[in-house]
Amino acid sequence: MKxxxxxxxxxxxxxxxxxxxxxxxxxxxxxVNQVMEDIIAADAFTxxxxxxxxxxxxxxxxxxxxxxxxx
Length: 71
Hints:
This protein has 71 residues and is of the alpha+beta class. The chain has one domain (2-62). It has 1 helix and 4 strands; from the N terminus they run ββαββ. A 4-stranded antiparallel β-sheet has the order 2-1-4-3, covered by helices on one side. The radius of gyration is 15 Å and the shape is flat.
């Protein structure tokens, strides 16, 4: 499963991560940048340390899970 992780700094300077499952690929870096700016401008999310005030990073993560048969 792939996730798009958008990381922001909040008012307290701590990192807050918004994770979106199964992003549409290929990822457009300019669009991700714009969406992150829009989230900050709209004050759309808050955290324990206050609102989101700065973009920190964005990344795609992928997790592979293999079940093990138990007897």
